[in-house]
TrEMBL record, chain A:
Belongs to the ABC transporter superfamily. This is ABC transporter ATP-binding protein. It is found in: Cell membrane. It comes from the Bacteria. Signal peptide: none annotated. One of its GO terms (molecular function) is ATP binding. Residues 277-298, 609-628 are annotated as: Disordered. Residues 15-264, 357-605 form the ABC transporter domain. Pfam families: ABC_tran (PF00005), oligo_HPY (PF08352).
From TrEMBL, chain B:
This is ABC transporter permease. Pfam families: BPD_transp_1, BPD_transp_1_N. Gene3D superfamilies: MetI-like (1.10.3720.10). Residues 94-299 form the ABC transmembrane type-1 domain. It comes from Phytohabitans maris. Signal peptide: none annotated. CDD domains: TM_PBP2.
Length: 676, 316
């Protein structure tokens, strides 16, 4: 995906940032949020900006737009757009530049679109505020919707945002941002809230617009895979500073900064050999209020020297490569290779252990009642069968709305099943009396995506963890403190955290508390819904390792719900791919990732970040109404009747989950066999 | 469509419950209309005869059923004390009350919207502080106090407006309006202050929403953001509150009428309750409650029209 950097005719990059420094006014006093940033973006170039929370990447984009929140202000530097310093412009001049020469796309399109205005009206506004006539705006709005690939643009233009899917909304945001062919387009985590297949489509739109319009793009992301697929150059930010800057290929293959290197190593990747443990970076990104002196990374850096704790390393050019610069005292002169570490296939299913979860033909149908006498049935989970064993992890993957979260709720007894049998450690939720339910609740526990929301903010960490112990009378008053200490130790938190409140902890620490709380009752099964997706990339690996360790130590089994296929591949023994309430493919992780059999699984894998964007997966857009009878995937299937009309069997017969290899099943009439 | 039908069914059910409440509360209250109608010197036999005549000796439920049945046919009974049909009594006085409520409603809408926008977005600190002070003041003064203050200021001290009474709106529209200004203001001010505060709070929240950032990123001016983005988003809550406050207005109107010596249905109600004139009291109470409920329903329907998300739910 590497293209040459086009410069504007006068050789000037579109955006040139020099010495950009900004402070945040916090209750505790001003804190440096951005420190002497230097970077350029040329026309037709996509610059990836990678960093964790508090790294300053979003602040940088808002500074360029001159839309910093009230608490932040730029104290030094220049932001040159085509050579003109934006920092010296009046607000009135900036208004003229915003939307015309500068466009921005934010992360969550639903929140960033006005809920009460038609999509077309919002799009036209982008044009009319810059003196387009109503007629011009109307024509151009339609053109733009087509440009970003909204099907039936003529009909959809008068819809409201809530009538659009997440991916379509993001396309609308992009259309608004590029309405005037801006010189610079900023995209701040534009695909983070989206499913992988839609993420790939949106990224393709961005790349295509860059190619067609020659826009300079600043793409802010935390996802290395997205960078790999789309960016020409990458800026790695850490604690408000640029740690390293290089061409994408160089940065991914031979990074020089220890942070970049460790980050790349710690992120699970779909195409590298599996490791027993992820090489996690210890600690967490520094709090902007309280950044360490010297190199901001020194408390986590494996290569730290004396000097690093005292003096801040400047960003310096790497001799061999003019486009490569790094801020580190000891960045080795010879680049590190991100070598594939030894140790091949790691985990296999462990069929010999006890079955702790058995799901047999489970259906969960939601009924919505419009009138007292008529009901509408939505089959959220539609005949699912699988087992989970002690000490193993089952991964549930699939796009939003596929039924995986409903299934998880049913396993936790939070959602009654409509039919079928669901047994946890030999007990069924349905028909259980209050005594049995209490016993079941001890057997299966939950870990949430957002640990903050699940912890009582007014309770100390110790009390939160002790609560289940008290409720189930698992520890007497005198033993409670000891039990809490032990649980904290199990999840790698020092005992002193027992007296802290959730807000005093970082995201990763809170997730550890969430896990400790789940472990308190010694469950046999833990259901975890996206347990690492809200965490910073460098912290994800730590929590993934913690899950691994706990399984080995306690023999607990996991059901992981995740949209991140690389994480699923690393953590899970077995994988279940769900589509439209059904399992379309199941089997050992090794088989599924090596030989995906179902067309849907293959599209998911081809869309996963880091797999390259050039491939067209052939996936058809969802038609809105799901087909019934026959294969539920046939309206979108790249090899089904939508692509091969002679494959009428797909509409006639429901494909059964048949064996395609050892313990490997797929529900498709044209499934690929392992021994193909 | 089904949505509106369901709403309507709900309203009818509420009205039924209210009618039972109104009926039983009055009839179970101590005091006997027969003694009032028969006069102070009546013998027990005379009182019993009057009671039989008025149908008051029938069992409670059959009385309620009879009244409800008549009411559904449009017959609200005859006043015990005045001997006229209740519908006529109300008809004579409804116009006056309606004028007052409508005038107060308009004032409330205009004043609260203007004050709300200034409070939320005003850039002139002094103006904002002044509006803030005035709304706080209006908020803490109930209509009967504001009535007296207004009368004192405009009728007694400056003598620019009449302190009470009314004129026919058809015969003398100008005069009628002059009589309306003070009572309508007295009624509208406290309600407008509540609404203004509410609108301001909600607009401040709207201005924090992410879509405001999108509008800024498009290059939209602050004025445009306030009027085209934040205000429409806050209108929803405002309209709901407008509907609820309409109920307050009706309640307040009955009081304000008394102070400004207007011959509205407020006076009718007060007389009817003190003389145990059940048919009149029941009819007036039921009518005011029905009007309040209706106002809320209308505000909900307006929202269903302006908010596409509610509309989508309504269409289902
Ligand atoms: S300067 Fe020192 S602490 Fe910072 S990254 Fe380099 S080696 Fe590590
Ligand atoms: S059964 Fe047909 S439509 Fe369904 S996945 Fe297989 S090929 Fe595609």
């Amino acid at each position: 995906m590497i293209t040459t950097v086009h410069n504007t005719p006068d050789g000037e990059p579109v955006l040139r940032v020099r010495g950009l420094t900004a402070v945040l006014d916090l209750p505790t006093g001003p804190a440096t949020a951005l420190h002497e940033l230097d970077f350029d973006i040329g026309a037709g170039e996509i610059l990836g900006v990678v960093g964790e929370s508090g790294s300053g990447k979003s602040l940088t984009s808002l500074a360029v737009m001159r839309m910093l929140p009230d608490a932040a202000r730029v104290t030094a530097g220049q932001i040159l757009l085509h050579g003109e310093d934006l920092l010296t412009k009046s607000e009135k001049d900036m208004r003229r530049l915003r939307g015309r020469h500068l466009g921005i796309v934010f992360q969550d399109p639903l929140a960033y679109l006005h809920p009460l205005k038609r999509v077309g009206a919002q799009l036209r506004e982008s044009l009319t505020v810059h003196a387009a006539t109503r007629a011009q705006a109307a024509t151009r709005a339609l053109e733009l919707l087509k440009l970003v690939g909204i099907p039936d643009a003529e009909q959809r233009i008068d819809d409201y945002p809530h009538q659009f899917s997440g991916g379509m909304r993001q396309r609308v945001m992009i259309a608004m941002a590029v309405a005037h062919n801006p010189s610079l387009l900023i995209a701040d985590e534009p695909t983070t809230a989206l499913d992988v297949t839609i993420q790939a489509e949106i990224l393709r739109v961005l790349v295509r617009l860059r190619d067609e319009l020659g826009t300079a793009v600043m793409l802010i992301t935390h996802d290395i895979g997205v960078v790999e697929d789309t960016c020409d150059r990458v800026l790695v930010m850490y604690a408000g500073r640029i740690a390293e800057q290089a061409g994408t290929g160089t940065l991914l293959k031979s990074p020089r900064h220890p942070y970049t290197r460790e980050l790349l190593r710690s992120v699970p990747h779909l195409n590298t050999p599996l490791l027993d443990r992820l090489p996690a970076i210890p600690g967490q990104p520094p709090d902007p209020r309280n950044r360490p002196a010297g190199c901001p990374f020194h408390d986590r850096c494996p290569d730290v020297r004396d000097r690093c704790t005292r003096e801040m390393p400047p960003l310096e050019r790497v001799d061999a490569d003019p486009g490569h610069s790094v801020a580190c005292w000891v960045a080795p002169d010879t680049p590190v290779q991100i070598a594939a570490p030894a140790g091949g296939e790691r985990r296999t299913g462990r069929p010999e252990t006890e079955v702790i979860l058995s799901v047999e033909d489970v259906r969960v149908w939601y009924t919505s009642r419009r009138w007292p006498w008529s009901t509408e049935v939505v089959p959220a989970v539609d005949g699912v069968t699988f087992q989970a064993r002690q000490g193993t992890a089952v991964g549930l993957v699939g796009e939003s709305g596929c039924g995986k979260s409903t299934l998880a709720k049913a396993i936790l007894g939070l959602q009654p099943v409509t039919s079928g049998r669901l047994t946890v450690a030999g007990r069924e939720w349905s028909g259980a009396d209050s005594h049995q339910r209490a016993a079941l609740r001890r057997t299966v526990q939950m870990v949430f995506q957002d640990p903050y929301a699940s912890l009582n903010p007014r309770m100390t960490v110790g009390d939160s963890i002790a609560e289940p112990l008290r409720n189930y009378h698992l520890a007497g008053r005198s033993q409670l403190a000891g039990a809490v200490r032990e649980l904290l130790d199990q999840v790698g938190l020092p005992a002193r955290y027992a007296d802290s409140y959730p807000y005093q902890l970082s995201g990763g620490q809170r997730q550890r508390v969430g896990i400790a709380r789940a472990l308190a009752v010694s469950p046999k099964l833990i259901v975890a819904d996206e347990p690492v997706s809200a965490l910073d990339v460098s912290v994800q690996a730590q929590v993934i390792n913690l899950f691994d360790d706990l399984r080995d130590r306690t023999g607990v089994g996991y059901v992981f719900i995740t949209h991140d296929l690389a994480v699923a591949r690393h953590m899970c023994d077995d994988i279940l791919v769900m589509y439209a309430g059904r399992i379309v493919e199941s089997g050992p992780a090794s088989a599924i990732f090596a030989n995906p059999s179902h067309p849907y699984t293959r599209t998911l894998l081809a869309s996963a970040p880091g797999s390259g964007l050039t491939k067209d997966t052939g996936l058809k857009p969802a038609s809105g109404t799901r087909p019934t009878g026959g294969c539920r995937f046939r309206d979108r299937c790249p090899v089904g009747p939508a692509a091969n009309p002679q494959r009428t069997v797909c509409a006639e017969r429901d494909p059964a989950l048949d064996a395609v290899g050892p313990r490997h099943h797929a529900a498709c009439h044209f499934a690929e066999r392992d021994d193909r | 469509m089904a949505y509106y039908l369901r709403r309507l069914l709900g309203v009818l059910a509420t009205l039924l419950v209210v009618s039972l409440l109104v009926f039983s509360l009055l009839q179970l209250a101590p005091g006997d209309p027969a003694t009032v109608v028969a006069g102070p010197d009546a013998t027990p036999e005379q009182i019993a005869a009057v009671r039989a005549n008025l149908g008051l000796d029938a069992p409670f439920l059959s009385r309620y059923g009879g009244w409800l049945g008549d009411a559904l046919r449009g017959d609200l009974g005859t006043s015990y004390t005045l001997g006229q049909p209740v519908t006529d009594l109300i008809g004579q006085r409804l116009g006056s009350t309606l004028q007052l409520v409508i005038a107060a409603m308009l004032l409330m809408g205009v004043l609260s919207a203007a004050a709300g926008v200034v409070l939320a977005t005003g850039r002139n600190g002094a103006v904002r502080a002044a509006v803030d002070y005035l709304t706080t003041l209006a908020l803490s003064v109930p209509p009967f106090v504001s009535s007296i203050i207004l009368i004192f200021a405009f009728a007694v001290i400056w003598q620019v407006l009449p302190s009470g009474g009314e004129a026919s709106i058809t015969a003398d529209p100008g005069g009628a309006l002059r009589f309306l200004v003070l009572p309508a203001l007295a009624l509208a001010l406290p309600n407008a202050a509540v609404l203004a505060r509410l609108l301001a709070t909600d607009m401040r929240r709207s201005l924090q929403e992410e879509y405001v950032l999108t509008a800024r990123a498009k290059g939209a001016s602050r004025r445009r953001i306030v009027w085209r983005h934040a205000l429409p988003a806050s209108l929803n809550l405002y309209i709901v509150q407008l509907g609820i406050n309409f109920g307050n207005l009706i309640g307040g109107a009955l009081v304000v009428e008394a102070i400004f010596a207007r011959a509205g249905i407020g006076g009718l109600l007060v007389d009817a309750v003190t003389t145990r004139d059940y048919p009149t009291a029941q009819a007036v109470l039921l009518l005011t409650v029905a009007a309040a409920i209706l106002a809320q329903m209308v505000s909900e329907m307006v929202i269903a029209r302006v908010d596409p998300r509610v509309k989508a739910r309504a269409a289902r």
